[in-house]
Amino acid sequence: MKKFSLEPIDIAYLANSIKRTISSVLDNSGSLQLETAEAIAQAFGLRFFEFGNPDFPIPSFNSLPEKTKQRIAYRKKEGPAKAVTYTPSDINEQINKVIKGYTAGDEFLAEDIANSILEEHGETYSVSQIIDRINKSFKEKIEKTERKDMSKEGRGPKPVFYKLKKK
């Protein structure tokens, strides 16, 4: 990481993991599953047994996988990672602004709210974050319906519509 100026978030990205997992290993408060350790090693073009060997030489930039080279370039361009956290009140405030445009009885998808927030405020929230806020903070105003969006193709459950009970 030091040689290529990468951070835990970069390793998590390259290994398809999460920053908390990588950070916990770095500060000796956690461990990795073999699958994750192998994914980290492969981010450097190595196998786990090579990566874990302190006598094995650090690979050169040119020998790294293309995705890793791109991430190194990204980190150089962007500089140190900045942690972004969203407080529930930020999300709640933005959801409130969106639903003010609805009238009682209007049905919508959580995805519609996420898209409206992105368009109006430039903030990106996942559909699961929106659903979490609806379930925790908007029980009095919004209810889940039984109707599903059958136009969504592919595997997985179909999105459920929500309805504005009152403004």
Largest beta sheet: strand ordering: 1-3-2
* N- to C-terminal distance: 51 Å
CATH topology (fold) name of the largest domain: Arc Repressor Mutant, subunit A
Average pLDDT, to the nearest integer? 91
CATH architecture of the largest domain: Orthogonal Bundle
Low-confidence stretches: none
CATH class of the largest domain: Mainly Alpha
Question: How large a portion of the residues is in β-strands, by DSSP E?
Answer: 5-15%
**Count of the separate structural domains:** 2
Helices and strands: which structural class? mainly alpha
Compressed to H and E, one letter per element, the order equals: HHHHHHEHHEE
C-alpha Rg (nearest Å):
22 Å
DSSP helix fraction: 40-55%
Broad shape: elongated
The helix count comes to: 8
Write the layout of secondary structure elements.
Elements: H1 8-14, H2 19-26, H3 34-43, H4 48-51, H5 66-78, H6 88-99, E1 107-109, H7 110-121, H8 127-137, E2 142-148, E3 160-164
Antiparallel strand pairs: 1-3, 2-3
Helix pairs in contact: 1-2, 6-7, 6-8, 7-8
Please tell me about this protein's structure:
This protein has two domains: 8-78, no CATH class; 88-164, Arc Repressor Mutant, subunit A (Orthogonal Bundle), CATH 1.10.10. The chain is 46% helix and 9% strand. The protein contains eight helices and three strands. It has helices at residues 8-14, 19-26, 34-43, 48-51, 66-78, 88-99, 110-121, 127-137, and strands at residues 107-109, 142-148, 160-164. It has a three-stranded antiparallel beta sheet. Helix 1 (8-14) packs across helix 2, helix 6 (88-99) packs across helix 7 and helix 7 packs across helix 8.
